[in-house]
């Protein structure tokens, strides 16, 4: 992946808006268009997907998974306000979502606020703790910020176990979402109604979070991420900017916590743990921190990894970790950047020239991954599940983990994948660079 | 007297173990400017590899071989994982090590299983070293302190008294100048990373027996050594030493104390249960219960009142 793969969110450089080209003709000035058709289409499509998803995935646990995706997507959006837009790597964002969830659960047990507005309780609680904790954590940026947030999450987690009265100790506190009776036929008993509540909150919060990126605060935090020193010179207090953004972000985190309290009807100390914070970091990064929609993508992929995959394999965390490390190493822009790069080549009609090399590369990766999965599954079976005999069913085939054959096959697949990668990569890199050059040329001519 | 002495001894030995970990972390931090999240994972790997070697050929070879293996692994991680990421800045590097720490836990579970391992002590180190009043001090704890001190001295001598150490110091502070003088700075970084990992591995070999060898051991000690590094001052070895001992003694002492705030009030003449609010949960928590959060409280207080840490030079 070339260095351009690192995306940057909506960086506007005023110097490039009105350059005079060598020909002497002034370049087109950026005009303000009141109706951004593409944006309206995109957001309508987003709303439609949210509306239609439960109709498509209605079977079995599909609905629960969709509800979980919704809360995680919102949590990821709030997290990316820090990491992607503000360059603040937090290891403790679950503190705000988790404490929001606790307050939401207690509010539900009080049964005085309608369930529809419970996420607001979570949001306000999360924001309150954002005001409190953020004051300490945002004093620093960069690595120190990351360390303080890690310390904070450990502090809150340990304290949660110390006060069982509020946090319910190891077992957590349970609650019940059907206390409001039927309002317009909605009792929040059926999972479908909960899903639509989550989807509605997700949509409203996404719109708000997107609108925020266009406010002066949303812009200046990008500047604070890229060059805090210059921001100080033009008269902003970078610490104050980080603080405000963290407070806003903790509101959205709290809303997602409130939604998860409604969804699961139980909140435990695990909700404020470092593990939970690490998970959201993983998901958001997988989706792509450079794009507004990255966390949404990351939420979907993350839930598929952490909810669907465990049904099939005990090694799901290993796969998630491997996927993350490979992404960080080879595509630091996440899935979002890969998607956008492919869309860009397609938009300029260059997809045809990279399709064949890309297919060859993907085939090599697929073969290698198949070998790796085979090896991992057999190792897992040997170390964890050996009491059930040496045989294990993999992809519908009974595999004998004590025989040499499957191991040789796994090794051969892995080796073939690696050799294929070595062989296919130069061709792909060449095609990719050529397509990139063509696109750059097209842009130059059309500008 | 007895209590104070043994708490101090145990605290210091725990603190020295923390320092074995945080010294490598500090070295790597001053080199790359990035905290290595996977550092505690190297500690865990050291313990597990030592377990495997010790159960095959014995403890003493494991004491040498396991750190070497972990060090090689660290060097490989730097060369093929971190170095290509350097051009993208600190966050991808930090995230890469974070991903590695996640993977290490899973790999350890894959290879060695999920349960804690029982780890036999070599006969020469089994049993009490001395008994004072009614408490005895185990030989192994003393051995742990000796190894930590030897390592501390060795590292210090290597860094300040040898040519290699001088080149490393130069590469840390003035990489361009060192490069201009013909030293291969990226390779030095690779070996410093490997060396730091080897120190963590050595700590793992020794700590794996005193504390449990289990997949959660990296997470248990991981956040504490970050606290040590921040409290001591980022990049300061001496600061890390003081902070390690401080936190080691503080946590060990706190675990043993059974007093509550309510008890203190009772001593001051206000027995609990009288007057409103005196049965509040805050008053019934013992100091031992707060032991887990003490390092983090120290971290937060330090960041509020002295953000650059005890001996740090940069904010």
Outline the structure in words.
The complex is a heterodimer of chains A (447) and B (315). Chain A is mainly alpha-helical and 447 residues long. In chain A, a hairpin with a 2-residue loop joins strand 3 and strand 4. The radius of gyration of chain A is 24 Å and the shape is globular. Chain B has one domain: ABC transporter involved in vitamin B12 uptake, BtuC (Orthogonal Bundle), CATH 1.10.3470. With 315 residues, chain B is mainly α. In chain B, helix 1 runs parallel beside helix 5 and helix 5 crosses helix 6. In chain B, a hairpin with a 2-residue loop joins strand 1 and strand 2. The relative contact order of chain B is 0.17. Chain B has a two-stranded antiparallel sheet with strand order 1-2. The interface between A and B is large, with 45 and 50 residues.
Number of E-type strands of chain B? 2
Q: What is the fold-level CATH name, i.e. the topology of chain B?
A: ABC transporter involved in vitamin B12 uptake, BtuC
Our estimate of the beta-strand percent of chain A is under 5%
Provide the β-strand percentage band of chain B. Answer: under 5%
- Our count of helices of chain B gives 13
List the domain count of chain B as a whole number: 1
Q: Largest chain-chain contact?
A: A-B, 45 and 50 residues
CATH topology of the largest domain in chain A: ABC transporter involved in vitamin B12 uptake, BtuC
């Amino acid at each position: 992946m070339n260095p351009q793969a690192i995306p940057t969110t909506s960086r506007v450089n005023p110097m490039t808006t009105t350059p005079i080209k060598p020909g002497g003709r002034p370049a087109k000035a950026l005009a303000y268009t009141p109706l951004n058709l593409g944006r309206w289409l995109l957001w309508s499509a987003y709303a439609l997907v949210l509306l239609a998803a439960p109709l498509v995935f209605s079977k079995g646990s599909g609905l629960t998974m969709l509800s979980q995706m919704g809360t995680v997507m919102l949590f990821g959006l709030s997290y990316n306000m820090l990491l992607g837009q503000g360059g603040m790597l937090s290891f403790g964002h679950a503190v705000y979502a988790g404490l929001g969830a606790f307050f939401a659960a207690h509010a539900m047990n009080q049964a005085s606020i309608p369930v529809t507005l419970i996420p607001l309780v979570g949001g306000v609680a999360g924001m309150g703790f954002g005001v409190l904790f953020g004051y300490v954590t945002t004093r620093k940026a960069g690595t120190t910020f990351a360390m303080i947030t890690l310390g904070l999450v450990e502090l809150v987690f340990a304290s949660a176990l110390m006060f069982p009265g509020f946090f319910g100790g190891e077992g957590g506190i349970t609650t019940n979402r059907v206390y409001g009776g039927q309002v317009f036929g909605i009792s929040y008993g059926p999972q479908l109604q909960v899903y639509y509540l989550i989807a509605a909150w997700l949509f409203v919060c996404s719109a708000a979070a997107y609108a925020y990126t266009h406010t002066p605060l949303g812009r200046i935090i990008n500047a604070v991420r890229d060059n805090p020193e210059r921001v100080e010179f033009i008269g902003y207090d970078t610490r104050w900017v980080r603080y405000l953004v963290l407070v806003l972000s903790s509101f959205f985190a709290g809303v997602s916590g409130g939604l998860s309290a409604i969804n699961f009807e139980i909140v435990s100390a695990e909700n404020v743990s470092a593990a939970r914070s690490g998970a959201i970091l993983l998901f958001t990064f997988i989706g792509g921190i450079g794009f507004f929609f990255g966390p949404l993508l990351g939420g979907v992929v993350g839930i598929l990894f952490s909810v669907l995959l465990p049904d099939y394999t005990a090694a799901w965390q290993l796969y998630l970790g491997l996927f993350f490390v490979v992404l960080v190493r080879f595509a630091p822009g996440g899935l979002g950047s890969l998607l956008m790069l492919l869309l860009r080549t397609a938009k300029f009609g260059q997809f045809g020239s990279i399709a064949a090399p890309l297919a060859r590369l993907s085939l090599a990766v697929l073969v290698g991954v198949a070998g790796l999965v085979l090896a991992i599954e057999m190792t897992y079976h040997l170390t964890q599940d050996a009491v059930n005999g040496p045989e294990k069913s993999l992809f519908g085939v009974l595999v004998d983990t004590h025989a040499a054959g499957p191991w040789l096959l796994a090794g051969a697949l892995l080796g073939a994948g690696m050799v294929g990668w070595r062989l296919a990569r130069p061709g792909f890199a060449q095609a990719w660079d050529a397509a990139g050059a063509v696109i750059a040329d097209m842009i130059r001519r059309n500008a | 007297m007895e209590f104070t002495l043994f708490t101090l001894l145990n605290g210091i030995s725990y603190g020295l173990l923390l320092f074995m970990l945080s010294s490598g972390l500090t070295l790597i931090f001053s080199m790359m400017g990035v905290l290595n999240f996977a550092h505690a994972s190297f500690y865990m790997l050291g313990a597990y590899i030592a377990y495997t070697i010790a159960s095959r050929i014995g403890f003493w070879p494991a004491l040498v071989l396991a750190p070497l293996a972990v060090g090689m692994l660290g060097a490989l991680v730097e060369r093929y994982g971190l170095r290509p990421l350097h051009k993208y800045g600190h966050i991808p590097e930090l995230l890469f090590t974070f991903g590695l720490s996640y993977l290490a836990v899973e790999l350890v579970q894959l290879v060695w299983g999920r349960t804690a391992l029982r780890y036999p002590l070599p006969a020469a180190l089994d049993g009490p070293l001395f008994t004072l009043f009614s408490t005895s001090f185990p030989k192994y704890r003393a051995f742990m302190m000796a190894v930590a001190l030897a390592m501390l001295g060795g590292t210090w001598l290597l860094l300040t008294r040898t040519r290699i150490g001088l080149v490393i110091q130069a590469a840390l502070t003035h990489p361009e100048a060192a490069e201009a003088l013909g030293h291969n700075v990226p390779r030095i970084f690779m070996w410093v990373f490997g060396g730091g990992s080897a120190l963590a591995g050595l700590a793992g070999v020794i700590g794996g027996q005193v504390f449990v060898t289990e997949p959660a051991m990296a997470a248990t000690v991981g956040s504490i050594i970050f606290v040590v590094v921040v409290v001591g001052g980022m990049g300061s070895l001496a600061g890390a030493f003081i902070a390690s001992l401080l936190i080691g003694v503080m946590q060990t002492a706190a675990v043993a104390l059974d007093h509550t705030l309510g008890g203190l009030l009772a001593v001051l003449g206000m027995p609990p249960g009288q007057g409103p609010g005196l049965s509040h949960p805050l008053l019934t928590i013992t100091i031992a219960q707060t032991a887990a959060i003490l390092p983090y409280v120290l971290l937060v207080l330090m960041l509020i009142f002295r953000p650059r840490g005890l001996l740090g030079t940069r904010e």
